[in-house]
Automatic annotation (TrEMBL):
<dbReference type="Pfam" id="PF04350">
    <property type="entry name" value="PilO"/>
</dbReference>
<protein>
    <submittedName>
        <fullName>Type 4a pilus biogenesis protein PilO</fullName>
    </submittedName>
</protein>
<feature type="transmembrane region" description="Helical">
    <location>
        <begin position="26"/>
        <end position="47"/>
    </location>
</feature>
<dbReference type="InterPro" id="IPR007445">
    <property type="entry name" value="PilO"/>
</dbReference>
<keyword id="KW-0472">Membrane</keyword>
<dbReference type="GO" id="GO:0043107">
    <property type="term" value="P:type IV pilus-dependent motility"/>
</dbReference>
<keyword id="KW-0812">Transmembrane</keyword>
<dbReference type="GO" id="GO:0043683">
    <property type="term" value="P:type IV pilus assembly"/>
</dbReference>
<keyword id="KW-1133">Transmembrane helix</keyword>
<dbReference type="InterPro" id="IPR014717">
    <property type="entry name" value="Transl_elong_EF1B/ribsomal_bS6"/>
</dbReference>
Length: 201
């Protein structure tokens, strides 16, 4: 049995739809209602529903941002205290960097440590400054000779100076081939000067 026969439609006349039996009219009405709903959804509701989903996603993101900002706001006092501690530490470190007028004093301190440990300076060359983003690096090439323990005491003495001085690129070799009691050490000492622009010397 076909659907049309079940609806009581024996013959379908497009000119006279009103002559359909009640079940046929109900089926046609239902089909038209579904068609109107589908077209209405596509035309009037699909875009707004997509926009609604987007707004809900934005709402979730904004709530997360708000929660993060609220947490930051709650910890603002602690962050400010940490910032103050960092600023103090930074000032102490910058204070350990020699100024232009103190560079000769740093060179004298290095020389005094070497001579105080019985070392002989063979070369002491201040090299051109190397600009870095927030400081100026001032390399000094030093060649000196002496006993092993005196060289070690020199390195320790330079490290304990009040200004920041780092030691790099060292080479140690016997002063005389076959005699290891006296050594020659070539080393680069670097001191630093604070610069908020990375200027050159």
């Amino acid at each position: 049995m076909s659907v049309w026969a079940w609806l009581g439609v024996v013959s379908l006349d497009r000119e006279n739809i009103g002559a359909l039996p009640a079940m046929g009219k109900a089926a046609v009405g239902l089909l038209l209602a579904l068609l109107v709903l589908a077209v209405g959804y596509g035309v009037f509701l699909a875009v707004p529903l997509v926009q609604l989903d987007q707004r809900r996603a934005e709402e979730v993101a904004l709530k997360q941002q708000f929660a993060a900002k609220a947490l930051q706001g709650a910890n603002l006092e602690r962050y400010q205290e940490q910032l103050q501690v960092m600023a103090t530490d930074f000032a102490v470190l910058v204070g350990q960097l020699p100024s232009d007028s103190e560079i000769p004093g740093v060179l004298e301190d290095i020389t005094r440590v070497g001579l105080g440990n019985g070392l002989v300076f063979e070369a002491f060359k201040v090299q051109p400054g190397v600009p870095r983003p927030f400081y100026l690096e001032l390399p000094i090439r030093i060649t000196l000779s002496g006993a092993y323990h005196d060289l070690a005491a020199f390195v320790s003495g330079v490290a304990s100076l009040p200004r920041i001085i780092t030691l790099h690129d060292f080479e140690i070799e016997p002063l005389e081939p076959g005699n290891g009691s006296r050594l020659r050490m070539s080393i680069q000492a670097r001191t630093y000067r604070y610069s908020d622009r990375g200027e050159s010397s």
